[in-house]
């Protein structure tokens, strides 16, 4: 491994996370403990003299080593006076011995900038949102379009989005390309990312896993016991989903170090220059796949400076979906019993959750997860050697029991981000049936958070109101006991959860305007929803934009779109058999697009402008390829 002095001081970041009137939260990873000062330039964002400055010490910067040459810096700075509202503010991180951001990360700056900038506004007027960013999906990166939005807003702070909302699948821990896994392993070696012991696997520790001749075909490394065979099918067997796609998990990330390396490669161009992957010995078929995936990853890597620049300028909130951990995560009670009942699969899930805590969850709600950060710090120690297995398993147990991943943002309208993965309404009578996305207690808490609000923005990783035909297909597969084959995860799949959710919308004291932002499905659509025979009822908009770098099979989606319009037209009697029969759903049309289409199959990122009442004034899909689409009501 190369020595630390040869490494750049900052490996990833800064990423601007939670931004409040008197609070600034930043995330970065460095190659060693940094002596940092933060400067704010409020009078002139690109001026020479800061208006305020702070040393970043143990009180406002938590340092957690994740390897010999990788240290997380979790910066949570309370401000003694308010940020100026609606004005562009420059910020700089001065690294002792390495200078300002312009010196050690010039890729984070737009032309003419001396430092990154931020804008704080308490009223939500303008949001970016997206999900499902798969590195080896061919084509450009929707998250890079956010960088152009920032560039267009420089000098015009009112046009800059309040927030960038990443609504799930920020990484794909369960579907890793061969050249990406090779790069992950090279980065682990270069940075000396921390090792661990593995229980219940055919390899004893992380180093043995990385060096194993079957390391790129990991289904062969699972234990040969009954539960292991079930896990092989569910985790590593390339579970076939004929209605949608085939999700191959041959190279599922296993260790904590692998997941940390994936986050670094997903958010920063710097690690790509540090890791020279060594391609494994492959047969002709695998070699062809390796080269195909390498070409896709080249595009991903080329756009990484733009992605990092956007993350440095926009307050970014996140929430997990299944691929951040593993496909079909907590889909059914039976799935949970199998997955958490075997040490190896429990560790795989737990490692992804530890990494999520450090890389995503902390920046969303630093105060709530502070005790878990303490536990993680105790586990990591000085970042060298290997994790203590008993302590690692104990932290995983705490994370699996943690019920605080959801959070809110205190603006107007209120923003509520839901955890639809770990607080599920499990079926006790039929454990193979899909669980509700929120259990009764979580739904009750949601209703309490809504009471008295005039308007609200809700982030639900899976759409609350999806495509009826696709939900019907999912229901049919559930009835024959095969929910895993079609990702039968929708709000209407569980009768109890669906009933409570719809009752919340009908409650007289809940908001007049709901904007629901979702992803997950790999296509984009917009619905306007009202309650039938209730003139004073709420107005609801389901706005789904997916994926940032993923797409649905084009021909299949075309047929779903067409059949859905035929079978579930407003006059169709089939509507009487859906759980949403008391709701009138009006689809929006994406313009420009093929006549009649309502589902947009294009990688990119969504943008929503809100009016003074918290209702959408404009809804737009910003195509990763530069082709944009405006969603207009179809009435």
UniProtKB/TrEMBL annotation:
<dbReference type="InterPro" id="IPR029052">
    <property type="entry name" value="Metallo-depent_PP-like"/>
</dbReference>
<protein>
    <submittedName>
        <fullName>Alkaline phosphatase D family protein</fullName>
    </submittedName>
</protein>
<dbReference type="InterPro" id="IPR038607">
    <property type="entry name" value="PhoD-like_sf"/>
</dbReference>
């Amino acid at each position: 491994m190369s020595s630390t002095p040869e490494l750049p001081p900052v490996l990833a970041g800064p990423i601007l996370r939670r931004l409040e009137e008197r609070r600034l939260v930043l995330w970065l990873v460095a190659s060693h403990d940094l002596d940092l000062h933060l400067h704010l330039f409020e009078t002139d964002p690109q001026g020479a003299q800061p208006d305020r400055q702070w040393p970043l010490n143990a009180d406002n910067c938590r340092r957690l080593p994740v390897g010999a040459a990788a240290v997380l810096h979790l910066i949570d700075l309370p401000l003694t006076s308010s940020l100026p509202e609606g004005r562009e503010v420059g910020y700089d991180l001065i690294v002792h011995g390495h200078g300002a951001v312009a010196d050690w990360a010039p890729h984070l700056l737009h032309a003419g900038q001396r430092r990154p900038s931020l804008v704080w506004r308490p009223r939500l007027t303008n949001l970016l949102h997206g999900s499902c960013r798969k590195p080896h999906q061919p084509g450009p990166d929707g998250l890079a379009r956010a960088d152009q939005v920032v560039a267009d807003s420089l000098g015009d702070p009112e046009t800059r989005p309040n927030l960038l909302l990443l609504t799930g699948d920020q990484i794909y821990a369960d579907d890793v390309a061969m050249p990406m896994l090779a790069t992950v392993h090279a980065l682990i070696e270069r940075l000396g990312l921390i090792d661990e012991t593995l229980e219940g696997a055919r390899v004893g520790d992380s180093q043995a896993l990385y060096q194993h001749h079957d390391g790129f075909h990991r289904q062969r490394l699972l234990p040969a016991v009954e539960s292991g065979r079930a896990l092989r099918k569910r985790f590593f067997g390339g579970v076939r989903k004929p209605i949608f796609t085939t999700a191959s998990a041959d190279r599922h990330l296993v260790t904590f170090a692998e997941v940390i390396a994936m986050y670094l490669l997903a958010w920063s161009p710097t690690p790509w220059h540090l890791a020279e992957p060594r391609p494994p010995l492959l047969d002709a078929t695998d070699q062809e796949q390796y080269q195909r995936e390498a070409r896709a990853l080249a595009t991903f890597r080329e756009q990484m400076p733009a992605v990092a620049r956007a993350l440095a300028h926009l307050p970014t909130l996140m929430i997990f979906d299944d691929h951040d951990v593993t496909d079909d995560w907590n889909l059914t009670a039976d799935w949970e019993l199998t997955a958490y009942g075997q040490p190896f699969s429990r560790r795989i899930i737990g490692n992804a959750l530890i990494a999520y805590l450090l890389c995503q969850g902390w920046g969303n709600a630093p105060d709530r997860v502070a005790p878990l950060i303490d536990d993680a710090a105790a586990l990591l120690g000085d970042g060298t050697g290997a994790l203590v297995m008993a302590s690692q398993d104990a932290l995983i147990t705490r994370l699996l029991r943690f019920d605080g991943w959801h959070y809110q943002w205190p603006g107007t309208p209120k923003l509520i981000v839901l955890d639809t993965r770990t607080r599920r309404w499990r079926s006790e009578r039929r454990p193979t049936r899909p669980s509700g996305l929120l259990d009764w207690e979580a739904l009750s808490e949601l209703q309490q958070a809504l009471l008295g609000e005039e308007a609200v923005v809700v982030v639900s990783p899976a759409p609350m109101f999806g495509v009826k035909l696709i939900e019907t297909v999912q229901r049919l597969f559930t009835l024959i006991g095969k929910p895993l084959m079609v990702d039968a995860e929708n709000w209407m799949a569980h009768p109890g959860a669906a009933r409570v959710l719809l009752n919340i919308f009908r409650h007289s004291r809940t908001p007049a305007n709901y904007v629901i932002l979702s992803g997950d499905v790999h296509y984009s659509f917009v619905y306007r929803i009202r309650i039938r025979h209730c003139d004073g009822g709420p107005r609801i908009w389901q706005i789904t934009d997916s994926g940032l770098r993923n797409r649905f099979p084009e021909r299949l989606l075309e047929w779903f779109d067409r059949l859905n319009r035929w079978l579930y037209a407003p006059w169709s009697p089939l509507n009487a058999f859906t759980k949403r029969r008391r709701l009138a759903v009006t689809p929006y049309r994406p313009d420009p697009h093929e006549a009649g289409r309502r589902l947009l199959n294009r990688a990119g990122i969504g943008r929503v402008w809100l009016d003074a009442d918290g209702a959408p004034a404009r809804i737009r899909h910003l195509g990763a390829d530069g082709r944009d689409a405006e969603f207009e009501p179809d009435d």
